[in-house]
Each structure stands twice: as C-alpha cells, then as structure tokens.
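User: I've been trying to design a sequence by hand for this structure and keep getting stuck. Would you show me what you'd pick, starting by listing the structure so we're on the same page?

Assistant: Good idea, let's start from the same input. This is the structure you sent:
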C-alpha cells in the first residue's frame, strides 16, 4: 500500500507537499477497504490522480515567482549616492593637515572643536589617536588607511608638484582599475604611513 503512495510522491523526481501525500494515502486506504482485491490497480491509479491533481506549480513558474519576489525586495531598498566624508585616526593632527594641504591641495576646515580636510564636496574628519570622538570605529588605528583620490590635473604636473614640495613617490606611475575605468596612478605615504593613491582616469 505504501509503495503506491511513495511512487506518487516521487513521480518524475518531483516533490509533493505532505498534505497531498496524506490525502492520497487516505483515499487509497478508503478505496482498498471498499473494493475487491482485483480492483487494487484501479484504487492505486485513483490515488495517483488525486495526488497529482494537487501538484505544486511547474518549476519554471515557481522560479519566476521567486524572481519577482526577490526583485520586489530589491526595489523596496535604497541605493547609496556618494561618499560624504571618512574618518582618519591620526597620531598628529597638525602634521596630517600640513601633509594633505601641501601635497594634495586640500583645505583645512573646523566644526565645533573638531578639524577636518575638505576636497571637492567631500571631507576627511580627523580623530586624534587615543582621544577619538564618539562614536568611533571598533579599532581606530593610525596608518591603517588605503585611499585613492582622483585629480583632473595631468599626472606629470602632479609628479612635478610632489617633487617640488619634498613628498616622496613610492610607486608609479602605474595602471590600475578604478570604480568606473582604468587609472594612471602614483602612490605615496602620509605622516601615519597610510597609503595614498593619486590618480587620473585614462
């Protein structure tokens, strides 16, 4: 009796909900009680019919439903537009400001009792090591940054400026991959030995 129900459950290698298996088994037991042994084949066929009549959606339809559901969840989210500011924890705020204003042409700005470096429409907020502002990163560490800055100035001019102001270029010019295309980049270090990449899009 159970072999017939199992066949119905695994027919064509497809899964059947448990309620369908229970329905088919109940029908089969009822028919077996009421029909003669010679009618067993008919009873088995009937149980298959009732189970398959309640079969789940075709796999392709189920996949489509899942895609629609996932797409709907994505549309309900949000997208980040751009970076407003980042924070560097530094050993010496004055030395950091001197480097970024001299080497990279950033502008020192203050807000409240805090100091920062502005470039374009973004800024770098500075936290003095061991005296960070709350909230802060879990492990604020000077020298753990690795930043890439884009400039429209030709790379040859950038190199001349850095040489003239006494800032050592560690690597470059080399080709790299940026967020939206190929870069021509040079690398140097700030006073905390953060790795600073200055780049042109190619």
């Amino acid at each position: 009796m159970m072999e017939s129900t199992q066949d119905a459950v695994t027919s064509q290698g497809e899964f059947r909900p448990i309620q369908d298996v229970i329905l088919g088994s109940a029908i089969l037991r009822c028919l077996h009680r009421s029909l003669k042994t010679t009618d067993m084949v008919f009873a088995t066929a009937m149980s298959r019919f009732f189970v398959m009549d309640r079969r789940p959606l075709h796999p392709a339809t189920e996949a489509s439903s899942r895609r629609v559901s996932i797409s709907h969840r994505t549309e309900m989210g949000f997208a980040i537009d751009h970076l407003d500011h980042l924070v560097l924890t530094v050993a010496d705020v004055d030395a950091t400001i001197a480097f970024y204003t001299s080497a990279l042409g950033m502008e020192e700005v203050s807000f409240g009792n805090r100091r920062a470096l502005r470039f374009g429409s973004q800024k770098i907020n500075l936290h003095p090591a061991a005296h960070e502002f709350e909230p802060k990163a879990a492990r604020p560490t000077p020298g753990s940054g690795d930043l890439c800055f884009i400039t429209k100035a030709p790379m040859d001019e950038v190199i001349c400026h850095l040489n003239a102001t006494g800032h050592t270029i560690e690597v470059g010019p080399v080709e790299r991959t940026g967020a939206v295309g190929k870069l021509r980049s040079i690398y140097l270090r700030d006073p905390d030995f953060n790795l600073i990449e200055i780049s042109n899009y190619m």
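That's my pick for every position. To get oriented when you compare it with your attempt: Residues 2-75 form one domain. Residues 18-34 form the longest helix (17 residues).
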